[in-house]
Amino acid sequence: MSLKHPYTCAIARSINILGDKWSLLILRDVILHKKSRFKEFKNSKEKIATNILSNRLKSLMEEGLLEKLDPSGTKKSTRYLATSKGIFSLPIIIDLYLFSIESIDESVLDESQINIKHEITSNRNLFEEKRKAEYFTFIEELAKSILS
User: Domain locations in the chain?
Assistant: First the structure.
């Protein structure tokens, strides 16, 4: 993405890249929930519109946060994977989570969400490192399955 006006503030630059909710939710789904297919993103509970999803995936790829893996050249085989730059967004996602989780009544959370809440709030750094490791394992297993 070429910039008409170069940014002199890192926060303004970051907001330009990640400032819409969909980009961060897609990155959340990729890194934390290991979603990698268009249909999986489309079926997320936030119900993103198809045209917005397509635009955000394209934008995230242009910014180098996601890469497209297309092993057989069909839409069904296409997968979107976080790059190392994309994985750097995980602390931002966790910070946003921590910013508001205490204001959400646990009675509206399912068991998985409650477990995540307790994991993050008890040891944020361990949660982050564990999720990164799990994502790298997911990518390795995906690569093996494609090469088989």
Answer: 10-147
